[in-house]
Amino acid sequence: MLNKIIYSSLLLNGILISTLSSPSFAAAYDQQLNNNLKKANHSVSEKVITWRRHLHQYPELSNREFETAKYITKHLKALGLEVQTGVAHTGVVAKLKGGKKGPLVALRADMDALPVTEQVDLPFASTQTSTYRDNEVGVMHACGHDNHVAILMAVAESLAKVQDDLAGDVLFVFQPAEEGAPDGEEGGAKLMLKEGLFKEKPVAVFGLHVTSSLNTGQIGFREGPLMASEDSFTINVQGRQTHGSRPWNGVDPIVAASQIIMATQTISSRQVDVTKAPSVISFGAINGGVRSNIIPDSVELIGTIRTFDQTMRADIKTRLAKTAELVAESAGAKADVHIDHGYPVTVNDVKLTQKMTPTLAKVAGAENIITTDLITGAEDFSYYALETPGLFFFLGVTPQGQDAKMAASNHSPQFFADEKALQLGVDSMTQLVVDFLLMKNNS
Fold first, then answer.
1. Within a 10 A sphere around the Cβ of 111, how many other Cβ atoms?
2. Which residues of 235-255 are buried (b: 16+ CB within 10 A; e: fewer)?
3. For the CA atoms of 43, 44, 50, 52, what is the dihedral angle to 10 degrees?
4. If DSSP states are collapsed to H, E and C, what string results for 54-108?
5. What tens-digit pLDDT sequence spans the chain (443 residues)?
6. Which residue of the set 29, 71, 132, 343 is catalytic?
7. Annotation says 343 is catalytic
8. Chain centre distance of CA 142
């Protein structure tokens, strides 16, 4: 590599090694590294599409990504990387050691598909089926994780080609079960960390997600909270069954449940500081009763909590349980509240985001950098960002000239990803690594 040639020349001429850190040399070195990176990225431009089409055609559900893992592993081993398989069931982790000493940076892609039957007319459309909650279902990469995997495979190959020039190491994380582990199982980012993924802790972690809400060529993100936490809950309201014509002879759990629904809506609107961060409490199901003239024994309520602040998140969960229990008690009923603690708030580290924004602007063009609104969807990338500074951004995949607001959303059976966006994904992720390591090395 050029830096080795220059280095040898400097030594032969008796010039001090400290010259390597001079501004002029550093600028020349940086430019050569970036030129080599561009060549490497260009060399994978067709491969990334091939990989994505294969992955799209053969999707697998959460914690069942066996063939996907084999496909990834074969590629990573061919690059000469240190590869570990079977992490959190099917996860694949690889490490690239740079030619120069420096920090460790992590990159993450999620591998799992959804129980959705594809409705997009593609020659490589999925026809796969599987069993989900005892039902035979179609399987589709309706959230775009096939793109994430293909991009990170390409990033690994590109960075391997400039490996000797990297002043640090790179951890490639191919994660299963971002969409949630099957009932009764652990999985995803939380399990990978539990099994020691960050035993050697990276100084930063980067991730991306394709989205139909932006056009190809656009990149969206924001500093601080980006995506909401997600907690689901079940409230079982226990009353006492009686004839519908004589409600005073029993305890009506339907009325009590209705009062709980209304009372909990005041938590977000009246009890927590709405100027600090928004929050949502939504009920998605009410189950109870069998006929018009029977007041049942119990009613089940199912819902979700979304917040953008971890402290507020804990407060709302406490308030929800207290409100449900006391409202039920006031009606002579009893409420049993169970909260399933889901993904935390996805937070982009402010300093890291500010530092790396110029890199993304350089790759995509400043006019294509979009400050996104807060997103009430959740992401388990959040677990990594709780361990080390993280930056998570969105890659637009709705073709240019089309209204992204009208495009089928992620998780839709009609979700479509423009393959022209893949190269920007590769360019942005590789440039983030190179620029971040250069900054660390020169600081």
1. 27
2. bbbebeebeeeeeeebbbbbb
3. -160
4. HHHHCCCCCCCCHHHHHHHHHHHHHCCCEEEEEECCCEEEEEEECCEEEEEEEEE
5. 334 333 333 333 333 333 334 455 456 668 999 999 999 999 999 999 999 999 999 999 999 999 999 999 999 999 999 999 999 999 999 999 999 999 999 999 999 999 999 999 999 999 999 999 999 999 999 999 999 999 999 999 999 999 999 999 999 999 999 999 999 999 999 999 999 999 999 999 999 999 999 999 999 999 999 999 999 999 999 999 999 999 999 999 999 999 999 999 999 999 999 999 999 999 999 999 999 999 999 999 999 999 999 999 999 999 999 999 999 999 999 999 999 999 999 999 999 999 999 999 999 999 999 999 999 999 999 999 999 999 999 999 999 999 999 999 999 999 999 999 999 999 999 999 999 999 987 77
6. 343
7. yes
8. 14
Q: Which string of DSSP letters, residue by residue, matches 322-367?
A: HHHHHHHHHTT-EEEEEEEE----EEE-HHHHHHHHHHHHHHH-GG
Phi then psi for residue 109, to 5 deg, are -135, 140
183 vs 96: CA distance, rounded Å: 35
User: Whole-prediction pTM value?
Assistant: 0.92
Relative to beta strand 390-398, strand 369-371 is unpaired
Q: Is 64 exposed, middle or buried (0-12, 13-18, 19+ CB in 10 A)?
A: buried
Of the listed 186, 223, 325, 419, which one is catalytic?
419
User: Which residue reads 């951890």 in tokens?
Assistant: 171
Q: How far, CA to CA in Å, does 228 sit from each of 154, 212, 345, 351, 376? A: 30, 19, 5, 20, 5
- Please tell me the distance from the alpha carbon of residue 125 to that of residue 108, in angstroms, as a whole number: 25
CB 152 within 8 A of CB 160: no
- What are the Cα distances from residue 51, in Å, to 45, 124, 134, 149, 422? 11, 11, 31, 8, 11
The Cα–Cα gap between 88 and 194 comes to 9
